[in-house]
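User: Please predict the structure of the protein below. I'd like the answer in structure-token form so I can feed it into my own downstream comparison script.

Assistant: Understood. Taking the following sequence of 377 residues as input:
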Amino acid sequence: MRHYLRHLDHLMLATALAISVFGLWIIENATKHDVPGQPTYYFDRQVAYVAVGVVGMLLLAAVPPRVMRAIHWYLYAGLLVTTIMVLVAGNSVQGGQRWIAVGPFQFQPSELGKLVLIIGLSAILAERRSSASPGMLTLIALAYVALPAVLVFMEPDFGTALVYGAITVGILFVHGAPWRHFVWLGLAGVVSIALIFSILPGAGVQVLQPYQLDRLTSFLHPDQVDTQGNGYHLTQSKIAIGQGGVTGKGVAGATQTRLDYLPEHATDFVFSVVGEERGFVGAAWLLGLYMLLVWRGLKMITTSPSTFGSLVSAGVVSMLLFQVFINIGMTIGIAPITGIPLPFMSYGGSHTLTNLLAIGVLQSINVYADDDEERYA
């Protein structure tokens, strides 16, 4: 126990908890009027999600990384099975069939899939680093991620599929994949975009749902946005952030949030609430915490004695960075609205649990960094 407590990355732990507590504070204030007669409906549930996530994080930090490597295929199989279950019999909410009902709660397998792919992909590349060529390793990585990514895209959940891609690129980069592989990946991305948005629709095959097309259209053609239609979310988000000014308008003065003009203010647009209620100061403080968390993850990439540890750290950092950039970007109009939540801040059990467990995996790598069985694995 003393070794465990001493080798935790306390700064990383404190930062993740600080963001989570800040998120609870924002959700409590932003959702008081969302459910008549139950002012703490969302807050109480988010407290439960965070509490379960923190316990899971601390327990996972005590699990040796070699155990995670040993069971990564079982985790991968579980991801595929649950994702297929979602497609067959999942619950549909707001145009997306992404959830499985677990009692009174909704469970989203694709969220935990992010962590499963980080562990599995890192294990595969670490195991084969000396027995396969760089080209073969890249192909193996792409094949490993492709199946769950396609299944998630079919739900449809374009945002999470993009996160899977960002995780793959980050892990391959740290693993040392040749630059030409990233060029080919970029070209493949361009071809995929052309197929999805132009070639297939021109042939009568609609890949994206109408609401997804509306979101992308409002992003690519802001001058043609219907502020009461497909551009409503972004318009209200910009108004909320702009009204916040330097120090924010506080809870009582945050009219966009309090009067429910700002849609999804506890989930996708929680950063807009931060901007309106706490202003530039609050937003800058939150971004500073994210930078601190990412720095600790980047440090772990360079200091981990094992390839597996470095690759897992790269995957977690890539996941967090991409989600933060896209979520905040979509609230201010520099990224399309994709439904990607803001780590540790947005309301929701699956992604809250995933993010905290991801910190737990990083803590495990740090705790067992001096273990002879883990070194150089």
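That's the full token string. The longest strand covers residues 96-102.
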